[in-house]
Structure formats: C-alpha cells, structure tokens
Amino acid sequence: MSRKRKALSFKEKLDVLKKVDENPKKKRVDLAKELGLAPSTLCTIVGQREVILKNVQHFGVNVKQAKTATHVKLEEVLLTWFREVTAAGVNVDGKVLREKADTIALSLGIENFQASGGWLHRFKERHGLVYRVVSGEGKKVDQSAVDEWLNTLPALISEYAPRDIFNADEAGLFFNLQPERSLCVKGQACQGGQKSKERVTVLFCCNSDGSEKLQLTVIGKSKKPRCFRSAERLPVFYKGNRKAWMTGDFFREFLTSLDRKMASRNRKILLFVDQCSAHPKEITFNNVTVRFLPANTTSHLQPLDAGIIRNVKHHFKGLLVRRLLAKIDRKEANLRISLLDALHFLAMSWDNVTSDTISNCFRKCGFAIGLDAASAGDCQEPGEDFTIDGWDNLETEASARDFVTADDNVATCGLTSIEDLVSEADNCEHEPDSDGHADDECDQPPSTADTLHALDVLRRTVSAGSVSDETAARFYAFQAGLVRDINGKKVQASITDFFSRK
C-alpha cells in the first residue's frame, strides 16, 4: 500500500534539514524512514534547501506552500508595510489592510483591482499573517524594567557559553563629516534631506567575550554605487535603499545567513537585539535564538550601545582626520572620501576594537557571570579629554568629542511611506549606478607597476624601524602573498593569451 502524501509546512521542512545536517554520515534511506518520509521526498527537500530558506524568509515558517499571487509587486509592498508598522507597535486590522492594498494598487497603476474579503483571506494565508494586539510604549526609560531585566538575565544566559552570546545593533554614520560641521549637526536626528546623502547605516554584531566580530553590514543610499565599479571584493556586506535604513527584509536576510552559518558549525547561539521596527518578531530559527531587550532601555542594557559602537566611531573618525590632513598636505581641492573608502575605514575600525573593550561593555550591561557589573573595566567611551591624533592641526572650534559623537542620533530605521515602498519596488532592478553624489569618481584599479611601487614605499617605511616587529612580520607575509598572486595572474594571462592566438 502506498504511503499517503503529507504536505509539510516550512517549519517541518526546516526540521528535516536540521536532522540532515545533524546526521551527515547517516544513509538518506534510513533517515527518511526515521522521519516517516519517502526517500524521494527527503531528497527533494534537501535539493530545495535554498528555495525553502528563501520562502521561510518571505512567507514565514507556518505556511505549507509558497503560493504565487496575481499581483506580486502589490503584495510585496503591502507585506513590507504591514511588517514595519506592526513591529513599530501599530495595531492593524483587515479593514486597514484592504484600504492600504487599494492605495498601493492605485500607485502601481493596477486597474480593476479590489481588495475584497476573499482576497484578504488568501493574502493572509499566502504570507502566514495573524492579527495581534500590540501595546504602545513610551520613550522614557523605565528603571523598574531595567532592574527586572538584570534580575532575569542570568537565567537567560546560564545555558550558553560567553562565546555563544551575541548582541546586534545598528548605528548611523556620517562618513564624510567635516570637523567644522560637527557642531551644527550634533544632536540633530537625521531622517532625510541633504545630510542623508553623506550617511550610512551600519549593522554590528559580536559575542560577549569579544572573540567573534561578524562582518559588518552597511546600508547606503544606492544599490549600485559608482565607486564600486572597479571593486570585485568589498570589506563588508553592502545593501542599498533610498533612505540608507535598516529594513525588516535586510534584517531577516542577516538572521537567515547567521542561522545557516551556525548550523554549519553545529552551534546554538543566543542573540540579543533591541525593539527597532526593522527587527521582526514573527520568525524563529533552529540555531539562533533571538531575545528582545525591554523597550526603551538599550542605553542601559545593550552592550553595543555601552561603548563598542562609540569605539568604532572613534577609530573611524581618526582615520578620516588623517586622510583629511594628507589631502590638505597634497593641496587637493576635494577633501571628501568615497563610499568605498568609507567601507574600508569601517572594516579597519571594527577590526581595531579589542576583545577587552567588547567584554567589558557586556559586563557593564549585566552579562557578567560571577563578576559584578560595577567592576567592569573601561568600555572605551571618550571622556572630556578625548582627542584624535592630528586634531590640533585642524582649524575648528569643535572638540574631538563633538566630532566623534556628532552622528549619535542618526535614525537607522523607521516607517516607510507607501510611496517610497512602491518606488523601491519599481526601481529594484533598474536603478542606475549612483552614489547620491554628483562629483564622486570611480577609482581605476592600480597597475602592477603602481602596486609594486606602493609595496616599495611600505617596505622602506618598515625598514626604517617605524613599526613594531609584529607589524613588520605581517607586512612581509602580506607582501609575499601579494607578489605571489600578481605573478600567478601574469602566468594565467600568458596562458590565456597563448590559447587565444590564431
């Protein structure tokens, strides 16, 4: 008698994939029998892994089938809007959804569309939506909530090693801020306008003992910046949208990638995030458990806000000042840096944050085991005497502290208007190359001669004894690898030229 076919939800398929990952040496036939599946079904699920993960990200885990809508773009815009407003604490019912659907259809130029009750039912089923009543929240820090969390936290983290406890958070950055402008910008919340063209949102994530700093995700205003044309490799993950904001889709993608990474290592982690509207609460993962910090308490409870991000900005602004002084010395008219330069500066700055700084900031926020939070060391927050090398050589009334903290209040997420969502949907595949800057130029890749000349300059610097022995050793290793790669490319080019001759 043939086995009755059973439709599996995405959650059940994820459980199957988890079982496969946990038993890599087990025969698929035996594993299928254990799971109560036909061997062909198991093979299909394994073969569709990427599709399943993508559908989970889009539809949620409780849906059994990724049903295609008649008006795909309309539903994508509506779903994004729904996720953003509910994450922000706004109650949404069926009537509101239908009204928004009609508005979006009008904006997209869809004729004869009517958001009927039947359409709404199918839309909810396709995307696994349910209505929940969400309570509003004030912006004032509730000390009782802070105290209650600090009492609860030890139990939450007791089953995890420090290396498996993570925090993720976003911060805005004015990557081209000039020192003379820092006073007029400080304390202003930037949500749009001209200043936004010089800003990015950066997603940071690290673990509590400082042993693991995940590669940064940076969100700019353009999906295809001109200055990336000659870059085949970026030092960060890069995304783009009109406001350079974190979105629910971007954060889901980050979580999905992180869960996949931890699954490949057979590792379970605990991730703490704040209640930003771009952080979805409706999805779960096998290897990443997401815990939300109490609302409006992150200044007290979030490690990245306790000095880690400030430390990154300190390093970044120091690099920016040194580049500015170098440009002034060379009498260059354009003192700006490109977005690509900024990404490299960010990666360097993130790398310069020490494990001690990170672990101390986690301790400060109550993540200490057997160590009172009050005994936490310096979290590298700048004091009143904070300074940057070369700052005294600049003509500015601003202090170095003002310069570092000027973008502390930059918005990193928010509710996106229907007009912006529709515009994003229309332009997602047809956006021209742009940085949002009229005068940005695309640097050409250096020639082999230029590269070897640069190495020669660096070698003379090292030989002059200007660096430590450790730095010198790293330079010589880098030099050997770079020359080896250059010579390898030359050989490959010669072989290609030989076989392409006629």
TrEMBL record:
Pfam families: CENP-B_N, DDE_1, HTH_Tnp_Tc5
Keyword annotations from UniProtKB, A to Z: DNA-binding, Nucleus
Comp. bias intervals (Basic and acidic residues): 427-439
Any one cellular-component term (Gene Ontology): nucleus
Region (Disordered): 427-446
Chief localisation class: nucleus
Protein's cellular compartments: Nucleus
InterPro entries (UniProt xref): CenT-Element_Derived, DDE_SF_endonuclease_dom, Homeodomain-like_sf, HTH_CenpB_DNA-bd_dom, HTH_Psq
Entry keyword DNA-binding: yes
Domain HTH CENPB-type: 62-133
Any GO MF annotation of the entry: DNA binding
Domain of life: Eukaryota
PANTHER family: PROTEIN PDC2, TRANSPOSON
Name of the protein in question: HTH CENPB-type domain-containing protein
